[in-house]
Amino acid sequence: MSARIIPVQPFDYVVFGATGDLSKRKLIPALYYRFKAGQFDQRSRIIGVSRSPWDDRKMQEVARESVKNHVDKAYRDKKVIEDFVSCFSYVSNDVTDKKGWKEISDKLRDDEDIVRAFYLAVAPNLFAPICEYLMGMKYCRKNSRVVLEKPLGHDLASSREINDAVGAAFSEDQIYRIDHYLGKETVQNLLALRFANAMFEPIWNATHIDHVQITVAETVGAGTRGYYDDSGALRDMIQNHILQLLCLVAMEPPASDAPNALRDEKLKVLRSLKPITANNLAKYSVRGQYRGVRSGTVEVASYQDELPEDRKGSHTETFVAIKAEVENWRWSGVPFYIRTGKRLAARVSEIVIQFRDVPHSIFSQTHGAPRPNKLVIRLQPDEGVKLFLMIKDPGPGGMRLREVHLNLSFAEEFEERTPEAYERLLLDVIRGNQTLFMRRDELEAAWKWVDPIRNAWDEMDEPPHLYTAGTWGPTASVALIERDGRTWHEEEDY
Ligand code: BG6
Predict the structure, then answer these.
(1) Which CATH architecture has domain 11-177?
(2) In 3D, which of 3, 21, 112 has the Cα closest to residue 65?
(3) φ, ψ for residue 315, nearest 5 deg
(4) Could you tell me the distance, in angstroms and rounded to a whole number, from the CA of residue 411 to the centre of ligand 1?
(5) Ligand 1 mutation pick, 237, 380, 420, max ligand atoms within 8 A of CB
(6) pTM for this one?
(7) pLDDT digits over 389-402, tens only?
(8) Distance 218 CA to ligand 1 centre (A)
(9) Which has more confidence, 366 or 241?
(10) Which of 184, 191, 439, 460 is the most exposed place for a label (fewest CB within 10 A)?
(11) Which CATH architecture fits 182-420+439-482?
(12) Ligand 1 — pocket residues by CB below 6 A?
């Protein structure tokens, strides 16, 4: 079945931080793909706002460049690009300067039925002043929405401050907190896999599942991104993306796909996470930082080398592994091993559901012991689902067992391009569908779990374990899982 394109009504999208990297690399290309697919047309307006002294022409030029650099060649079409960039205009505005705000008013349409979305792709300390102005200028009305990019604070207290400030201008059902992982096709597929197939739910529990692994590994480094050294992998990846994945795996079936039905269930998971504090930190967590490699012509700088002089010696972690536990009936005794890092051996994000051994093997050792089944959900790259099963090795020679996998590769199964996460999310804002966005209480529950880990590390003030760039992280992370008699899942095609 091919994708169904349901056009949205004309909208006014105001993008604060339009000159930034996110806008050029992700937002503009995502909007282009939707425009090309016919989901919106030239009746919609995209208004870039930033401090740079650009004008409409420059904004349109940048939009054109961004399509050229970040959209697949097969989808670039001269006429469509020109129509698309004609939707763009620009306002140069320092948020403290009232003049710029007046110009934004001039570009917005009065028609109450037109959805107005304010996308804040700016530093979080600007969220409050921008929302104050939006409120002061009476921009917030029934059909207005605000979209918040991460980081949504650096701890519970700062995230509450942001939520309070934004909440003073917009009601919760107008606030769209982006976690782009939720927009990934394969992440949404996790919902389809769990709740559109009857076979998994009866075995999706501690009786049948031994443990779960979630890995988000990247090969890129981090050091040159100013923000990263203040954040580290725990805040950058675990607090949001990985906890959201964990929630989707662990949550109870929601009664429907209504936004709050799903978000209520995710919240319960977050609130059931066993706290990790200074007392059990060593048993449950490992953090690492990459060191460089010099071998022949290959030279990769260490995290420390990438840092500016005044940051040298930083203890910021570029790798984290945690053994998380969801303390409820379904998951009692089932660890969730989660790990993420920069400069790892491969770029791969996947979820592994490791089932338990058969209760009794009728096969003697000489046949090869049956291995427990495993379901691997590959989020990226090479999106797909693999089910590891035992079969009889074909041919004579007695009953010999062999492990094989049923492989569902999305690229092979579907001819269509896998849409980027932002394509779905940007238009969900216009459609008014909050299912794939984080609610305030979810965000705060995630910080509540993460803060004690962060605080305990900070109080210890010890350097993270070093690992060599291009490996799977510090050996301590291998020990974390092997202490429990388990190993990290790794495949040959990484
Ligand atoms: C971002 C993090 O949220 O997600 C980055 O800030 C990270 O550090 C990125 O590289 C990973 O996203 P993706 O979609 O490339 O897996």
Answers:
(1) 3-Layer(aba) Sandwich (3.40)
(2) 21
(3) -95, 10
(4) 22
(5) 237
(6) 0.95
(7) 999 988 888 888 99
(8) 9
(9) 241
(10) 460
(11) 2-Layer Sandwich (3.30)
(12) 218, 236, 349
